[in-house]
């Protein structure tokens, strides 16, 4: 029984990862379960949202530069 059991275990050890790799690399499965789920959780940004974020970053950058400039002028 020992050899038959070892052959069964080795077959199981080899077929499970190969099967999982094959299933995970199916394009239809990947698109359905991963890409659509990702789009559902994180929808694509709209152009106006992106512009608002860029304007906010620019405003923060200008405030930071003004703060550093004032600090440099006071230290001089």
TrEMBL record:
Annotated signal sequence range: none
One of the record's GO cellular component terms: mitochondrial membrane
The entry's keywords: Membrane, Mitochondrion, Transit peptide, Transmembrane, Transmembrane helix
Localization of this protein: Membrane; Mitochondrion membrane
Record's bilayer topology term: Single-pass membrane protein
InterPro entries documented for this protein: Pet100 (IPR018625)
Keyword Membrane listed: yes
Principal localisation: membrane
PANTHER family, per database record: PROTEIN PET100 HOMOLOG, MITOCHONDRIAL (PTHR33968:SF1)
The protein, known as: Protein PET100-like protein, mitochondrial
Species whose genome carries this gene: Daubentonia madagascariensis
């Amino acid at each position: 029984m020992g050899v038959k059991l070892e052959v069964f275990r080795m077959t199981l050890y080899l077929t499970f990862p190969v099967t999982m790799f094959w299933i995970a690399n199916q394009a239809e499965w990947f698109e359905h379960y991963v890409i659509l789920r990702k789009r559902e959780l994180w929808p694509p940004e709209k152009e106006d949202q992106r512009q608002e974020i860029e304007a906010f970053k620019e405003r923060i950058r200008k405030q930071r530069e003004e703060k550093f400039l004032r600090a440099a002028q006071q230290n001089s």
